[in-house]
Amino acid sequence: MTSIPHLIARVRPEFARSEQDKSCHFFPLPSGGPLPETLRAYCGFSIAPGQAEALDGPAGMPCLGCLMAAALSD
Q1: Highest taxon of the source (predicted)?
Q2: pTM reported for the whole predicted model
Q3: What pLDDT, in 10s, does the model give residues 1-51?
Q4: Nearest to 45 by CA among 70, 71, 63
């Protein structure tokens, strides 16, 4: 079984509109091909290019749905 590469990110503070935006989410990275216009997290949350703050690891409040889905995807 191979693990799926993912990006851990949250919305940059100036674009955050809610507490969910401030949570860190796990985004599966597309394998090959062009990058989509928005990245969709495991929980369904989407983020536009330029609005994301990439993180080295979970920081602040992680999204529980993303944590569970990312763990199960490996």
Answers
A1: Bacteria
A2: 0.76
A3: 456 778 888 889 898 888 777 888 888 877 777 777 888 999 998 888 788
A4: 63
Nearest to 10 by CA among 74, 19, 65: 19
Cα–Cα distance measured from residue 38 to residue 2, given in angstroms and rounded to the nearest whole number: 24
> Could you tell me the residue ranges of all domains in the chain?
6-72
What are the respective helix, strand and coil percentages of the chain, to the nearest 5?
Answer: 25, 25, 50
Residue 71 has pLDDT above 80, yes or no: no
Residue where the block lists tokens 């985004």: 27
Contact 71, 24 (CB under 8 A): no
31: left (phi over 0), alpha (psi -120 to 50) or beta: beta
